[in-house]
Design goal:
Blueprint lengths: L1 H56 L2 H10 L12 E3 L5 E3 L21 H6 L2
Antiparallel strand pairs: 1-2
Length: about 120
């Protein structure tokens, strides 16, 4: 009977030690999980902050300002636009303007009076 009691006592002690070891591992895993969740919350907050910063950096006014100041770009106009054909030749968007002759009474077309124009209808 003493041997059985001694054997049962050793079994109880072994299971108690195993239980303590299992609880210790469980607590370690729980603290590791809590740290991982804190890191995830921190990273989520940082991601949100970076997205807000990215949106602030990509505003059209800021992009236009940087393009003008740092890249010396300018807005397009018909005077500086050129179209390129598939063969590589360039077509100006606006035809070159010939110098205008001064307006005189001799080279201006005669204007009809409004009453005369109505009478001819």
């Amino acid at each position: 009977m003493a041997r059985i009691n001694l054997l049962l006592l050793l079994a109880v002690i072994a299971t108690a030690l195993y239980l303590v070891h299992t609880q210790y591992l469980s607590r370690q895993l729980y603290t590791e999980l809590d740290r991982a969740q804190q890191d995830a919350r921190r990273l989520e907050t940082e991601r949100d902050r970076l997205q807000v910063e990215k949106r602030a950096q990509a505003t059209p006014l800021r992009v236009e300002k940087l393009a003008k100041e740092q890249l010396q770009m300018r807005t397009t106009s018909p005077a500086i636009t050129q179209y390129v054909r598939p063969d590589g030749s360039v077509i100006p968007a606006v035809a070159p303007v010939a110098p205008a002759a001064p307006a005189t009474a001799t080279n201006r077309p005669a204007a009809k009076p409004a009453a005369a124009a109505r009478a001819t209808r």
